[in-house]
Design goal:
321 residues, alpha+beta, Glucose Permease (Domain IIA), 2 domains, two-stranded antiparallel ribbon, 14 strands, 41% helix, rod-shaped
């Protein structure tokens, strides 16, 4: 038997035995047991994990780190795409004079968290990380697709622009000085003032005449005004060129033939309404309206050469047709 426990009673000034409360004692024992059990479970859970559980924890940690790394790389890629977008908008589309892609289309947003129901079973922290990474990836994929479409469009335009430049009537058609410019002139044969819709170049009979730009022969023949002539269509450039008063046209220069800038398409002469050998050269739009050919020669000349040519074309009035 255990020894009795006493306490001091101030009323009687004596020590009296203490009666033990068994209920309180039992409660204390139970609480102590529960505390020991909880501590044991926590320790076992943290310390005594199985090898499979430890491997899964390590794998989850690695996957989380990798996801965070992927998210960082996606942000960097999105920044690079933003720079490409700036070049696209401010340089290429400005160069080709085409409208920019609207801002709302550029945003290519996603549909929010409801777009990823497959992540609903994960813990909130993990689910948010997965959703954020998937959302970034979807946006970058859409931006890549949009930019790819834009570059395909720009590539097509660049090809057309290159063809347009090649077709532009930018070189002198014959080696000879301008004797009459574009504008109202007195015709040397008819003796009436009329519109001179092109340039006259002095060129001895038989001087080679060159195509001034890439194109397709659409007409050859003889007319009362032009004499023997050749007409070339420059489809992409939206222009046609006419070469008149030719003495001879090579056999291969016929309707449908493709010619390049600088190819010989005939030889100068004085056929038709002409009073001396020369080349009458015109530039027209596809509707047949005459344009001043002198304005198209600038790319093939230095500024000083072009200025002298313009001055000569505006000051000469000697007409051979």
């Amino acid at each position: 038997m255990s020894s009795p426990t006493f306490r001091y009673d101030p009323d009687t000034c004596t020590y009296v035995p203490v009666k033990k409360n068994r209920t309180r004692f039992v409660a204390r024992v139970v609480l102590a047991g529960l505390a020991v059990g909880l501590v044991s479970m926590f320790v076992l859970d943290r310390v005594a994990s199985t090898p499979e559980e430890l491997a899964l924890e390590n794998e989850n940690a690695v996957l989380r780190t990798q996801l965070e790394h992927v998210a960082s790389r996606l942000d960097q890629l999105a920044g690079d795409l933003g720079e490409l977008k700036e070049h696209d908008s401010e340089l290429y589309r400005t160069l080709f004079a085409i409208d920019d892609i609207p801002g709302d289309v550029r945003q290519v947003g996603t549909g929010g968290t409801e777009a990823y129901p497959e992540f609903s079973g994960f813990r909130n922290e993990t689910r948010q990380l997965l959703i954020a990474t998937a959302s970034r990836m979807d946006k970058v994929e859409r931006q890549l697709s949009l930019q790819n479409d834009s570059y395909r469009e720009l590539s097509t335009l660049a090809g057309e622009y290159e063809r347009r430049l090649a077709e532009m009537p930018a070189i002198l058609p014959v080696n000879g000085p301008i004797t009459s410019g574009f504008g109202m002139r007195t015709h040397p044969v008819l003796k009436v003032k009329r519109m001179h819709g092109g340039l006259d170049f002095h060129a001895p009979r038989g001087t080679p005449v060159h195509a001034t730009g890439d194109g397709v022969i659409v007409q050859t023949g003889t007319s009362a005004g032009y004499g023997r002539f050749v007409k070339i269509r420059h489809e992409t450039a939206g222009l046609t060129t006419v070469y008149g008063h030719l003495s001879r046209v090579p056999r291969e220069i016929r309707r449908g033939a493709v010619v390049g800038r600088g190819d010989v398409i005939g030889f100068s002469g004085d056929t038709g309404l002409a009073n001396a050998p020369h080349l009458h050269y015109e530039v027209q739009d596809l509707e047949g309206r005459s344009l001043n050919p002198v304005y198209f020669f600038a790319p093939s000349m230095t500024p000083d050469e072009y200025e002298r040519l313009v001055t000569l074309a505006e000051s000469t009035t000697l007409m051979f047709d």
